[in-house]
Amino acid sequence: MKDSQPVFAGIDVGASRTKVVILDREQQIIGRAVVKSGTDFEAASHQCLTLALDMADRTAGQIAKAMTTGYGRKNVAISQESKTEISCHARGCYYYFPRPITIIDIGGQDNKIIKLDESGKRLSFKMNRKCAAGTGAFLEEMSARLDIPIEDLDGLARQSLNMVELGSFCTVFSATEVLEKIRQGKKVPDIVKGLFFSVIKRVMEMDSLSEHVVMTGGVVAHNAFLVLMTEEMIGRRILVPEYPQLTGALGAALYAIENKRLNP
Amino acid sequence: MAEEKKVVRKKIEATIQMNRYMSDYFYELNEADKTRSRKIAWCTSVGPAEILRALGFLVHFPENHGAMLGATRMSTDMIPIANASGYSPEICSYLTADVGAHMKGVTPLSKAYPGIDRVARPDVLVYNTNQCRDVQDWFAWYAAEFKVPLIGIHTHRGVKDVGDAHVASIASQMKALIPRLEAISGNKFDMDKLRHVLALSRECSNLWKKVLDTASAKPSPITFFDGTIHMGPAVVLRGTQTAVDYYNLLLAELETRIQNKVAAVEGERFRLYWDGMPMWGRLRDHSDLFARAGVNVLASTYCNSWIFSAFDPEDPFNSMARAYTELFIVRADDAKEAYIRRMLEFFKVDGIIYHDAKTCPNNSNCRYGMPQRLEALTGVPSLTINGDLNDLRLVSDEQTKTNVEAFIEQLEEK
Question: What span, in angstroms and rounded, lies between the C-alpha atoms of B222 and B265?
Answer without folding.
Answer: 8
